[in-house]
Specification:
Layout: E1 3-16, E2 29-42, H1 52-67, H2 81-92, E3 98-105, E4 110-114
Antiparallel strand pairs: 1-2, 2-3, 3-4
């Protein structure tokens, strides 16, 4: 079986604050987030693991519609990048054969969850 991974990147803007945090992130602030969703599976007769448009449609419907230009605290109780990854994974796992989800919070800061780290 020819198994392969494909991925799509997305970006969204959102505000958040970290309740109880002692640093500056306790104040409401915003980021441009970059999201990478990687799926894995066999290459089908179509020559594809999955159509990129299918991945895009699911991510837009299940994740971006709820997070883009929103206050993350209204959606995720303690919206650390780690908690955001868990929330995103939970929203996508029943719709896509996830290999990994990676989320950058601004430039140079990220968290990643992989299927092996479940």
């Amino acid at each position: 079986m020819n198994t392969m991974r494909i991925g799509c990147e997305f970006s969204f803007d959102a505000g958040h604050f970290i309740p109880g945090h002692q640093g500056p992130c306790r104040q409401i602030h915003g980021h441009t987030y970059r999201l990478e969703v990687v799926v894995e599976g066999p290459v089908k007769d179509s020559g594809m693991v999955m159509d990129f448009q299918t991945v895009k449609d699911v991510v837009h419907r299940e994740v971006l519609s709820a997070l883009d230009h929103h206050l993350l605290n209204d959606v995720i109780e303690n919206p650390t990048v780690e908690a955001c990854i868990e929330w995103i994974w939970a929203r996508l796992q029943h719709h896509l054969p996830l290999a990994s989800v990676k989320l950058w919070e601004g430039e140079g800061k990220w968290a990643e969850k992989t299927a092996s780290s479940r």
